[in-house]
Amino acid sequence: MAAVDKKTFKREPQTTEDAGSRGQQQKRQRVERQKAQPTGELKIDARKLWEVLRRGDLDAEVRKVKMKEMMDMLRGHIKEVTFKHDMSRVVQTCLKYGNDEQRSEIAAELNGSYVDLSRSQYGRYILMRILKYCPKFRDEVIKSFYGHVRKLVRHKEAAHVLEECFAVYANSKQKWNLVAEFYGREFAVFKSIDGPKSLDAVLAMTPQKRETAMDSLKSTVTPLLEKGTVQYSIVHRALLDYIRFADPSERQQVIETMRELVVEILHTRDGAHAAMLCLLYGSVKDRKAMLKAFKPYLQRICCEEYGYAVLVEALDCIDDTVFVNKAVLQDVCGMMSELLADQYGRRIPLFVLGGRNPHYVGSDALQVLADNDKVKALTSKKDASVRRKELTAFVSDSMTEWAAANTTKAIFDPLPSQAVNEILLRAHGDKSAAWQRVLDLVRMDVAQLGADHVLISPIANRVVTNCILAEHSVPKSADSTLPALPESNPKFGSEVLDALVDSEQLVPAACAGAFPVRALLESPVTGERAKQLLRPHKSSIEAAMKEASKKRIFEAILNIL
Fold it and tell me: Dihedrals φ, ψ of 444, to 5°?
């Protein structure tokens, strides 16, 4: 055969008809291959019906009819088709739009295959839907995982389903039955209904099981740490128990392994608790590595429900306040406005100023801090009041600047008003600008503003009252480590009284039942002067009391006069 000249050879152009016929031919071949499968016809018909059923704008009555057709078609074959990606979506749609009876029928037909479904790339989504839409079968799904937890938590697909069960749907006993398998084989086999629900309870009843439980925990936790798969809450529980009960040398090994991973476990209660213990027990090198890992995600951590507590622990136990300032507080100062406006973010700067105040720090975090004090006495050498004073100096300038710019509005807002209160009382440096904003509000007309006046507002008047009291007495606090108030603080009570006298608002404020007026009368600094100014107007106060609905504050003022 003669050789073809490559330079002169040209392929004939493909016509539209040829291309179309070839595409149609391939489609026919694909359909024929599907039909040749045992459930091929079923899959083709189900997908056609699914295209209608999945539409969001489908009429409710039409959807009921189509769902019945789909269930009649799939009944008895659901387990056969459910592991394929295209049919997985069909079953998911049935679970989404079906009624309770249809959903239960699907879940019942798949019962016995839940573990296999969890391991399937597409089947796991069906199991997620069963957990969401079939409450009666949640116990069955969770029980099906018993005995398989240690393998499932390492599985790429199954770990997501296990997390959903543990974090969202399991009750306390089911959570224990799942996580207990990390503690040894006997926990995987024997499930006691009335038995202990925590490792603490197990070790209290049978202390001899501690070594076995720790060995089993270590064999489970170590591979997860090496792979970096620590984002699941069930793993956080295991990590927490290991750090709490392991021997010091083994605990230190785990902390060294996970110090770069701690940032990934802060979003759960157990994870945050474990991270707090890592900071507490960790070496100086470990602590610095953890804080450096936090830095790119600092604002998110500050504003997390549980993550903020880890930063509180860092502020409470790390002696090197200069490093804490560089790693944490400088960034905190840079986003002060955003943090003080956030429910959780505000707790970081307020902890620096106000310490372990239950108004600022959550009860869970306070309990962990209190439990950690014995360990902190061994791992931290700096006096707590000295540490607090140094940290306060780092944040004071930023917080006073915020107060000067925002006090006029913030003092009337429940959460920001607490920040104004702590800044005025405890921040270092010049607070005259922020305090002047408060005095400007004090001078405003009481009769005109009524309940919106700073002395009458139930939120704002607390700030003014606390400042008046702070002029002559130390504010009550649950934290004994707080240093004394700065000597450079303004003469709060005296300046409030001067402002009221200058603006002729003292008598109107008393007639309006303002709590700060009572504080002025009770103060050893301003009491005598305030009494002299108000006694001539006692009849006016009595007349105002008769018209008022709440009389106790008027009675208190009149009794002092």
Answer: -70, 160
DSSP state, residue 154: T
pTM of the model: 0.84
Query: Taking a C-beta distance cutoff of 8 angstroms, is the pair 539, 482 a contact?
Result: no
**CA separation for the pair 41, 338 (Å, rounded):** 59
Instruction: Give the HSE-up count for residue 246: Cα atoms under 13 Å, Cβ half-sphere.
Output: 26
Alpha helices in 145-198 (DSSP H): 149-152, 158-164, 172-179, 185-189
Measured between alpha carbons, how far is 76 from 34 in angstroms, rounded to an integer? 19
In this structure, the number of other CB atoms found within 10 A of the CB of residue 285 comes to 10
Q: Can you give the C-alpha Rg of the chain in angstroms?
A: 34
pLDDT, residue 269, reads 93
Half-sphere exposure of 355 (CA within 13 A, CB side): 18
Measured from the Cβ of residue 234, the count of other Cβ atoms closer than 10 Å reads: 24
Exposed e or buried b per residue across 33-65, where buried means at least 16 C-beta atoms within 10 angstroms of its C-beta: eeeeeeeeebbeebeebbeebbeeeeeeeebee
SS (H, E, C) 345-399: CCHHHHHHHHCCCCCCCCHHHHHHHHHHHHHHHHHCCCCHHHHHHHHHHHHHHHH
Task: State whether residue 15 is helix, strand or coil.
Answer: coil
User: Which residue type does 79 have?
Assistant: K
Please enumerate in sequence order all residues whose Cβ is within 8 A of that of 301, keeping only pairs 6 or more positions apart, or say none: 263, 266, 294, 307, 308, 310, 311
pLDDT of res. 2: 47
* Whole-number pLDDT of residue 31: 60
CA–CA distance, 365 with 315 (Å, rounded to integer) = 13
- Calpha distance 115→107 (Å, rounded): 13
Angle at alpha carbon of residue 458, lines to 457 and 460, rounded to 5°: 60
**Terminal-residue alpha carbon distance, the chain:** 126
Beta carbons of 214 and 248 less than 8 angstroms apart: no
Q: In whole angstroms, what is the distance from residue 256 CA to residue 235 CA?
A: 17
Q: What is the pLDDT of residue 312?
A: 94
Helix 60-74, helix 40-53: angle, nearest 10: 170
In whole angstroms, give the CA distance from residue 438 to residue 404: 10
Which residues of the chain are under the pLDDT cut of 70? 1-20, 23, 25-40, 187-196, 477-478
* Cβ(257)–Cβ(226) below 8 Å: yes
The count of other CB atoms within 10 Å of the CB of residue 335 is 16
Tokens, residue 504: 């002729």
CA–CA distances in Å: residue 176 to residues 129, 188, 316: 24, 11, 31
Whole-number Å distance between alpha carbons of 470 and 493: 8
Residue 389 CA, distance from chain mean position: 28
Separation CA 462–CA 454 (nearest Å): 9
Is 152 in a helix, a strand, or coil? helix
CA angle 281, 298, 252 (to 5 degrees): 15
Q: Which pLDDT does position 202 carry in this prediction?
A: 80
